[in-house]
Amino acid sequence: MDGILMKKNDHHRSSLKINTVPWLRRIILLTVPAILFFCLSPGCRTATAPQPYQAPANATAISGRPIVFMTASELAEAIRSGKLTSVEVVSAHINHIHKYNPDLNAIVFIDEKSALEKARQADEALARGEILGALHGVPVSIKDHFAVDGMRVTNAFPPLADQVTDFDATVVKRLKDAGAIILGITNMPVMAMDVQTFNPIYGRTNNPWDLTRTPGGSSGGGAAAVASGMSPLTIGSDLGGSIRIPAAFCGIYGIKPTENFVSGYGIFPGISDANKRTVRAMASLGPLARSIKDLKLCLPIIAGPDGYDAMVPAVDLSPKPKPAYTDLRIAWSDNFGDVPVSNETRKVMEQVIQKLTDKGCTIKQLNPPHFDFPEVWETWGKMVDLQININLPAPARFLMYALGGLERRQSPLLQMVYPATYDKFIEESSRREILIAHLEQFLMKWDVFICPVVTRSAYKHHEPNDVIFGYNIYRDPIPVGDHQLNYWTANSAYTAPFNATGNPVITIPAGYSEDGMPIGLQIVGRRWHDMELLDMAEMIDAAAGAYREPPGY
User: Fold this and answer.
1) What is the 8-class DSSP label of residue 308?
2) Which of 105, 352, 520, 549 is the most buried (most CB within 10 A)?
3) Above pLDDT 70, what percent of the chain?
4) Is 347 known to be catalytic?
C-alpha cells in the first residue's frame, strides 16, 4: 500500500481533554467493539508511505470556475467531453487538500500515488473510447469505517490505528465499478458514536465556515471535505442524524436513504466477532455532495442487493414523472415535542415555506397525527440500546445503566432497557412498527414533510465531560436561543425520529444565521420512494435552496 497519513496541527489535539474514569479504561478497550452495528473483519496489511506528490499548479480552473468546486456531475461530464482530464481533476483536489486540510483536518488518509495512477488509466481508457461508468475519473472520499482495499481504515478506534483493509465495502466497490477514484479517507468520531467529529487517533475536524465550530458528526470529516472543495462527493452513514447534521452544519446536501436501501457489507472492518450483526434497523448509508443532482447520480450506483447483506431488497430506481409545483402537497413543522429551535432556524423555515407557497404548492403546518415525539425519541433510544449496548458484558451493562441515570432523565433519546430481554426487544420493535405505519399513512396524504435538521446552526466545539464504555458523556448543555438544551436533544431531536421510522430524508442548505453559518432543512418522504423524493427535493431546492461556497477556499 502506498499512502500518506495526513498530519494534524497541535490545536486539533490540545482541546481533547477527556477524563475517563481510570479503572474503566481496560473495560472500555474490551467492550467498545460491542457497540458496532455491522462487523466484517478480513485480514490487514502493513502500510508504507511514499513522498508526497506535487500536483501541477495549472490544474485549477475551467471557464473561470475552480475545478474543486465543480460538482461530481459537472466533473464527470467535463472528463467525458475532453474539457478536463481525470489527472487534472485529481491533481487539483490533491493540491487543494495539501493547502487547506492542515486547518480543517477533514481528510485523514490520502492515497495520492494510486489515485493519480488510476486517473491516468481513466484518461487512457477514454482515449480508447471506453467509458468506465457514470463517475469515470471523478475523485471521491470515504468515511473511516468503510473498507477500502489497500487503505488505512481505523473506525477511529485506537486499537485499529494501523489497520489496512484488503477488500472493498459494497459502496466502495460500486463506486469503483462506476469509474470513481477513491482519493482518501475522511474523519469521524470513535466508532461513529457522536454528532461531533474528533477521536484520539486523528484529532478534531473543524467546520469550513468557522474553524472554532463543529462540522457535526459522525460524517463530519466528509461534510467538511465536500464543503471546502477537497472532495466533490463522499459516503457517510446515519443512525441518528450522522449524514444530515454534518450536511446542515457545513451547508451541503445529503441523503439518508430508506433503511436497508444500501448494503452495509464492509462497514466497521477489523472488529472481532465478525459474523455477528446486531443493528438490523434504523441505520442508513448514503452520499453527501454539493448538489441534489449529485445525490441522484450517486444513490442508484450504490443502492440495491449485493449478495452479502440479506436485509437489502431489490429497489425501484427508475425515473418517475416530476410533479408540477402546483401538485406538490407539503406538510411542515418547526416544533417537535416542544423542543425549541433558534429564531434564526424558524425564520429560515418560514422563508422557505413562503417561497414554496409563491410557487403554488399546497402547504399546511402540522405534525403527523398519532406521532408522539417523546414516545418516538424513547423508542429510538431503546432500539439503539437493544441493538448496540446489548453486547456489553452483564457487569459493564449494569454499570452503564447505573452511571447513566442522570443523562437518561435529561433526554428521552438516552434510554436503556434493563434488564434487556427478548420480550422487551419485541415490544420496542412493535412500537416502532406502529410509528412507521403512522408516518406512512401521513405521507400518503402529503408528498413530503419539511422540518429543521437541528435546533440551531453549528455551535462552538463542545467538550465531553466524561467517557463511559466508549461513549462520550455530555452534561454541559447546548445554547439554543434563550434556552439551554441537553446535548443529544439539541442535536438529534429532529433527526432521530426518521431513523426510528426508517424513512428517506434529504438535507438541503436553506439559509444562514446572522453570523453567516449555514442552516439546513430536512425533506422527508415515504419509505422506498427515495428517487421520487430526490426529484421533489430538487424542485424545493430550486425554489428555496441557499447553497453557496464557504469563503476563503
Assistant:
1) S
2) 520
3) 88
4) no
How far apart are the C-alpha atoms of 22 and 282, rounded to whole Å?
Answer: 33
Residue of 94, 107, 110, 105 whose CA lies nearest to 47: 110
Options 8, 118, 143, 176, the catalytic residue: 143
E strand map for 84-138: 107-110
- Regarding the domain delimited by 4-10+65-305+325-544, which CATH topology (the fold level of the hierarchy) does it fall under? Amidase signature (AS) enzymes (3.90.1300)
CA distance 31 to 194: 17
Of the residues 73, 231, 242, 411, which is catalytic?
Answer: 242
Distances (CA, A) of 152 to 12, 100, 140, 260, 270: 20, 21, 16, 26, 11
In the chain, where the domains are located = 4-10+65-305+325-544
The question of whether 219 is a catalytic residue gets the answer: no
What is the bridge-based pairing of β-strands 233-238 and 139-143? parallel
Angle subtended at Cα 496 by Cα 225 and Cα 395, rounded to the nearest 5 degrees: 100
Q: Report the half-sphere exposure of 251 (CA within 13 A, side-chain side).
A: 19
| The three cell numbers locating residue 27 | 473495560
- Among candidate residues 41, 73, 91, 218, the one labeled active-site is 218
pLDDT tens, residue by residue, 202-258: 999 999 999 999 999 999 999 999 999 999 999 999 999 999 999 999 999 999 999
The residue written with cell numbers 497541535 in the block is: 10
The separation between CA 89 and the C-alpha centre of its own chain, rounded to angstroms, equals 24
Beta bridge partners of 332: 365, 450
Q: Is residue 291 annotated as a catalytic residue, yes or no? A: no
Residue 426, judged by CB atoms within 10 A of its CB (0-12, 13-18, 19+), counts as exposed
Asked whether residue 49 carries a pLDDT value surpassing 50, the answer given is no
* Type of residue numbered 68: V
Cα 284 to chain centroid distance, Å, stands at: 9
What is d(CA 12, CA 138) in angstroms, rounded to the nearest whole number? Answer: 30
Whole-angstrom Cα distance, residue 137 to residue 90? 8
The type of residue at 250 is: C
CB neighbours (10 Å) of residue 7? 12
